[in-house]
Amino acid sequence: MRGDIFLRMIVSGREEVTPDALEEALRQLNLRYTLAASTADTYFGAGFTVVVQDNILGAWLQEFVAMIQSQSLAVALSFR
């Protein structure tokens, strides 16, 4: 599941996340991560193996991992 799909659902009023992001951009980023975690848990609860693919930087990674309630969780990091 690609996490950016949830960001693309915001059409009117979408704010891009930049190094000097506005509070609204960060609110939308948090919504994106919340929806991705919730969706992953829903699919997992229905018996599916779920892979979430997203760019999660800095302290957001720890927060995102904490949002996922499923018991079986692995985090794979990719550095470019």
Molecular shape: globular
- Average pLDDT reading: 90
Instruction: Determine the structural class based on helices, strands and strand pairing.
Output: mainly alpha
Q: Count helical runs.
A: 3
Rg result: 13 Å
SS elements, strand count: 0
Instruction: Classify the helix fraction into a percent range.
Output: 40-55%
Low-confidence stretches: none
Give, in order, the helices and strands.
HHH
Short description:
The chain is mostly helical. Helices cover 46% and strands 0% of the residues.
Q: Which keywords apply here?
A:
80 residues; mainly alpha; 46% helix; 0% strand; globular
Sequence-ordered SSE layout with sheet pairings:
Blueprint: H1 4-8, H2 23-45, H3 59-67
Architecture overview:
By secondary structure, this protein is mainly alpha-helical. It has one domain (4-67). The chain is built from three helices and no strands.
